[in-house]
Amino acid sequence: MPAYAVLGAQWGDEGKGKIIDFLARDADIVARFSGGNNAGHTVINDLGDFSLHIIPCGVFREGVMNVIGNGTVVDPDVLIEEINSLSNAGIEVEGRLIISERAHLIMPYHILLDTLAETSRGISAIGTTGRGIGPAYSDKTSRTGIRAADIFDQETLKERLENVLGFTNDVITKVYGAKAVSLDELYEKCLGWADKLRPYVGPAGRHVNEVLDSGGNVVLEGAQGILLDLDHGTYPYVTSSSPTIGGASTGLAIQPQYITTVLGVFKAYNTRVGRGPFPTELFDEVGEKIRTLAQEFGTTTGRPRRVGWFDGVAARYSTRINGYTSAVITRLDVLDGFEKLKVCTGYNLDGEILDEIPGGSAALEKCVPVYETLNGWDKPTAGMSDIAGLPKEAREYVDRLEELINCQVDIISTGPHRDQTIMPESVI
Q1: Which of 13, 21, 114, 139 is catalytic?
Q2: How far apart are CA 111 and CA 252, in angstroms?
Q3: Closest by Cα among 216, 208, 227 to 277
Q4: 340-349 and 368-375: which strand pairing?
Q5: CA dihedral sign, ordered 89, 93, 97, 101
């Protein structure tokens, strides 16, 4: 009855999609537990190149059921588009996807509010993707959200929408001076969603638990990363949900003891999208070289990712919060050919050396990284699947990251394809 959690261990974009796709070969279910279509996974396999924003990566493995849990927020338009895109590529989705009836929906007014609020912040903008994620979670918390089950109850749906729009349209028109959302148009849109999504919505949590109870394997698909967590991330430059191990349990309604393996996915360097503190960020030709080699542009937004050296302080913090049983290093091949590499081992804050991320973003902004320099390697690692073939310096680099992470590295990714993976020992 094991569940295997695959979590982003940095600021997201660590390459979780490739790892989940790789591990899904042994899974009965791949289940998404947090976030919305503000996150994205790029998966490259024998079927082609795919960018998924809400549907779990298990969809590419025959016989694997895919679950979108109650902890997510779902934009029905994006979901329907993704279902159609996969179907057009010859990938069967119906009968292999369950959306929790308790999952909250991203409504058109959420997207509008997200955009209006971000614009109003000016230079203090958070760097939101503008997908309506924050407002949807806000409505969930304030108990005014619309859940997937609600769109099938026509008798109460229109009244629910009318009550929500009474306040929401006041904000849209009186605070931001924008055009009000039409109740009738929104209601008709919801009926259209209900018609298209009826085969997919159901008791997802019950299904996951039944598979676990029967001894099946479930891969828990994390979105984004712990440093964007609402509580444990670099607040306020964070997401609106919990991409942590705690979020995995609550976001799928499974008991914590089912989760036997927790994989933390780390890039061999660091990246971040949007605003917020980033101590090891590179502003020179080295950073640009890494960005270009790795094509570090957001899967969802297309925005260039900020690039920096590996942050060991953040890595240790990440491990302490999530309790990884195994670490995964991705994008090692990007660092091929660099003569010297740096890793951050501490922060200098006003003359004091810190070994943990400070709680306040203002303090983190002032932190100066303390670096250790390691030798690079000139032999390519790209495409390697055997640890014995790694150059000595590459192995030493991975060993040093393992020390900084404070967790054994069990998987090394050396390229985007499934086969470009080093796994000395099975972790599941």
Answers
A1: 13
A2: 25
A3: 227
A4: antiparallel
A5: positive
Note the pLDDT of residue 155: 85
Residue 291 forms part of a structural domain: yes
Q: Are 240 and 226 in contact (CB under 8 A)?
A: no
Q: How many CB atoms lie within 10 A of CB 19?
A: 23
Q: Among this protein's residues, is 13 annotated catalytic?
A: yes
**Is-contact 193 75, C-beta < 8 A?**
no
**Catalytic (active site) residue 41:** yes
Looking up residue 335, the CATH number of its domain turns out to be 3.90.170.10
Query: Is the distance from CB of 342 to CB of 404 less than 8 angstroms?
Result: no
Residue 92's closest CA among 65, 129, 132, 118?
A: 65
Distances (CA, A) of 247 to 35, 60, 153, 241, 332: 10, 24, 29, 8, 28
375-396 residue pLDDT tens: 999 999 999 988 889 999 999 9
Residue 378, token pair as written in the block: 């000139």
At 350, the pLDDT band (50, 70, 90 cuts) reads: very high
Band (12; pLDDT cuts 50, 70, 90): very high
The residue range of the domain holding 278 is 266-422
| Final residue in a domain of this structure, among 157, 181, 197 | 197
Which candidate in 41, 53, 104, 232 is catalytic?
41
What pTM was estimated for this model as a whole? 0.90
Structural domain contains residue 427: no
